[in-house]
Amino acid sequence: MRLKVEFTTEPFDLDEAPAHALVAREVIEAAGLDTVDVGPFGNTAEGAADAVLAAVDALLRKSLGAGATRISLQVNVIGDADRDADADAVGEGV
């Protein structure tokens, strides 16, 4: 299964990235996920379920430890490689 996580950390500071935002960026970039997009108002990452869930755990723990007072996140299933392969095999008459 593949997952996509979207998240923000607060409080916001438009003048300078706060420590919790920098920590969140470091966690996500080091997680070995397939796709990472980090921006000032929202961040997204995609990858295998285990990798995304481990990254979310580290993100929550480390960002809160670095001063985040709120972390908003959403996790979506974006694909299931096994299910997609099975569907392809059925479509091919296998």
Spell out the blueprint of helices and strands:
Blueprint: E1 2-10, H1 19-30, E2 35-38, E3 43-48, H2 49-65, E4 70-79, H3 81-91
Antiparallel strand pairs: 1-3, 1-4, 2-3
Main sheet strand line-up: 2-3-1-4
Distance between the termini: 22 Å
What's the β-strand tally?
4
Strand content: 25-35%
Q: What's the short version?
A:
The protein is an alpha+beta fold.
What does this structure look like?
The protein is built from three helices and four strands, in the order βαββαβα. It has 94 residues and is α+β, with helices and mostly antiparallel strands. A four-stranded antiparallel β-sheet has the order 2-3-1-4. A hairpin with a 4-residue loop joins strand 2 (35-38) and strand 3. The longest helix is centred in the middle third of the chain and has 17 residues, at 49-65. It is elongated and about 40 Å long. The two termini are 22 Å apart.
Structural descriptors:
4 strands; 4-stranded antiparallel β-sheet; 94 residues; alpha+beta; 3 helices; single chain; elongated
